[in-house]
Amino acid sequence: MGRLTAWVDRRFPFSALVRTSMTEYYAPKNFNFWYFFGSLALFVFAAQIISGILLLAHYQPSAKAAFNSVQTIMYDVKWGWLVRYIHTTGASLFFIVIYLHMLRGYLYGSFKRPRELLWLVGVALYVCLMGEAYFGYVLPFGNMSYWGGEVITSIIAAIPYLGDWLASVLRGSFGVGTPTLTRFVAFHAVLLPALLAVLILTHLLALHEVGSNNPDGVEIREHLDARGRPVDGIPFHPYYTVKDMFGVGVFLVVFCAIVFYAPTFHGLFIETYNFSPANPLKTPPDVTPAWYLAPYYAMLRAVPNKAVGIGILFAAIIAPFLLPWLDYSPVKSSRYRPVYRWMVIAFALTLLALGWIGMQPATPALLLPARIFLALYFLFFLSLPLVSRLEPTRPVPQRISAS
Amino acid sequence: MIARLSVLFLALAVVAAHAAAQTTPLLSPPAAFDRATIRRGAQWFAQYCLSCHSVKWIRYDRLTRDLGFSKDAVRQELMFPGGAHFAQGMVPTLSARDAAAWFGVAPPDLTLEARLRGGAWIYTYLRSFYFDPTRPSGWNNHLFPDAAMPNVLAPISGIRDAKGRLIQRGRLTPRQVNQVIGAITVWLEYTSDPSKLERERLGPYVIGFALLLSVVAYLMKRAYWREVS
Predict the structure, then answer these.
(1) Fewer beta carbons under 10 A from the terminal one: N or C of chain B?
(2) Residue A266 class from Cβ within 10 Å (0-12 exposed, 13-18 middle, 19+ buried)?
(3) Contact between A275 and B192 using a beta-carbon 8 Å cutoff
């Protein structure tokens, strides 16, 4: 073992990598509940890759065969149902984990200097994940897949100037059909997973360069002991590897409970109308997107003009990228920012409300609430420069407070 | 802020509940999801439904594995339509083209019907037929007005008019008929996701393992963290 490691180390920085990223990477010792979701996201990503490869062994990307090949997986392939339910449940839980991971960033100001680039890569990961989920959603070619494919590509077609060209590149044809499925499989199984993998690695590299933030938002690297180690830091391995293992265990309990007892999750994780094959002549009663994209759909529907709606959608996705430069407060954590703390809570509730509205049929009664919540969404970002300057903050401790 | 938000949420919930109200209330089937009920449902389905409706994703041979039918029982009790093959899907001999000509639309495949509409819908639908001389088939349905399907269960359920009055008695009592329809419903719930039997058998072991893993990981975490001040 020792000789092999030495042999490798002369040719590849194996031991150095283990040291800098695990055994001598110092993380703050006061991580709480919110700090489980980074490693859980990595865990779900791995589960999606493995189950995805297995599904791809039986899936056929053509308008005629796609739906049937998915049923073959469900009925005839040994353990096929398990692999597919893992993949569909994993997709939804990926978003739950990522949303909680991002909320953590908002709560403790993890986007602030010096972590701006870490945050940018993270938001880029989220945008890629939305694309990954959308392309995957169309592949089984049930009726919701088909109409979801039609609706989203027609939204893209409404982008001024470039829209028609972009939509035809995506569809590969005038409508959604076999050419769409063949390229969506390329995006879903090659392009975006590769992009996600590279961005995850970048995200981790950036994290290890600047070090983790923590619930108090104080920099542990500002207080070093005689050997140059952060006084309030502990080595990531073994302390956080064992802690994250516990997180994975609890997560698996939830994950397996859904896979084994409620795989469709009442039509939220696998939609009811997707159990009938794609039918261009029969629109489902309500075409609404998967729950994790529903807030954006609510924003789009809140605006009567298509081009303006797309502009707002675009702005809503761009806004989180700007967060490090909208918030001027020198205090990171919402623990010491009484106003900002309630803003984040209201922001999370706003997104929940928009998500709920986005999943309802389009009725005039919901138009006004949708517009109010849309305004609240942007108000969060627009009021930040002012709030962060005027807000009376509480004194931040020099070092991590005892928990 | 929070108070105003919660008022809004409440208003939204009321709107949603209003939109969800339906005209014909759905009844839940008086049958449990177990192998015995599914087997009975399969037998009734083969007698009354399989002449026109396929459940093409269910191969006959899986019924011996999933439900404990013997191979002979499957051949004699379920494979009535001539030309059926033991290793292939449950498909009627009636061609889709003939069926479309006779009924106006081809009877749909029912494998996934329970997932699409729900068991309560199927159960209520099969109980909602009434005699209607204005329809070509002589039948109409409260839940699905102007359905093309006739009441194939009339010999056992009897014939009722639009107000629910019995015009002609059937072979079984109303209670027995509801049980038959319940069993057919449970059978279709099985066909829509046969993994349910296996899932619910394995579930406790898998979740038990995950729980055990969590407990071990927690104890390990506590042991390691004892030295962290």
Answers:
(1) C
(2) exposed
(3) yes
